Amino acid sequence: KLFFTDYGNTAKVERCDMDGMNRTWIVDSKIEQPTALALDLINKYVYWVDIYLGSVEVVDYQGRKRHTVIKGKQIRHLCGLAVFENYLYTINSDNLSVLRINRYNGTDIQSLARLDNAKEIRVYQKRTQTAVRSHACEADPYGMPGGCSHICLLSSNYKARTCRCRTGFILGSDGRSCK
C-alpha cells in the first residue's frame, strides 16, 4: 500500500495500491493541513503532523482507533516524521533540531541534535525492513520486471501487478509492452 496526505480542497490522509488503484480516505474529518506522515509497519498505524491544528495524531490502516499523540503550538514547526520503537522522530524547522517524542503519550520530548538544513527524517534499521517474499514484479527470464517492458507496479496484493509506461509511450494491447 501507498499512504499519503493531501490538503487541497478537502484535507485527508489516504491509501491506495502501489498502482494507484483502490484509493481510500482513511482520515477526512477534523484535519486541516497534514504535512508529514510515518508508518508503524509492525502494528499497522499511520501517524501524521497537522501543522494548522498543531497536532500529531494516529490511526490504524483502516482509519480507526484515532487519537492525538501531542498537541500544541510547537507542532506548527515540525516537518518530517519517522517512527521507531517507542518514539516519533521529527525536525523542528524553527530551530533545526531533531526531536524525539514518546509516541504513546506525547511526553519525554528530547532535542537530540541540530542540523543545518533538514526538512525530512528517516530511520533505517534492519528490524523495520519487512522480509520480501516473491512478488509479481520480480524480473522474468528476460530481465523485465513482472514481464513489463517499462514499469511494474504491485497491485492489490504481492501476487498482482500492473504494467505502466514511461512518458511518451502507451501500453500495448498485451498489457505488458510499451509502444
UniProtKB/TrEMBL annotation:
<dbReference type="GO" id="GO:0042813">
    <property type="term" value="F:Wnt receptor activity"/>
</dbReference>
<dbReference type="InterPro" id="IPR050778">
    <property type="entry name" value="Cueball_EGF_LRP_Nidogen"/>
</dbReference>
<dbReference type="Pfam" id="PF00058">
    <property type="entry name" value="Ldl_recept_b"/>
</dbReference>
<feature type="repeat" description="LDL-receptor class B">
    <location>
        <begin position="1"/>
        <end position="43"/>
    </location>
</feature>
<dbReference type="GO" id="GO:0005886">
    <property type="term" value="C:plasma membrane"/>
</dbReference>
<dbReference type="InterPro" id="IPR011042">
    <property type="entry name" value="6-blade_b-propeller_TolB-like"/>
</dbReference>
<protein>
    <submittedName>
        <fullName>LRP1B protein</fullName>
    </submittedName>
</protein>
<dbReference type="Pfam" id="PF14670">
    <property type="entry name" value="FXa_inhibition"/>
</dbReference>
<dbReference type="GO" id="GO:0060070">
    <property type="term" value="P:canonical Wnt signaling pathway"/>
</dbReference>
<feature type="repeat" description="LDL-receptor class B">
    <location>
        <begin position="44"/>
        <end position="87"/>
    </location>
</feature>
<dbReference type="GO" id="GO:0017147">
    <property type="term" value="F:Wnt-protein binding"/>
</dbReference>
<dbReference type="InterPro" id="IPR000033">
    <property type="entry name" value="LDLR_classB_rpt"/>
</dbReference>
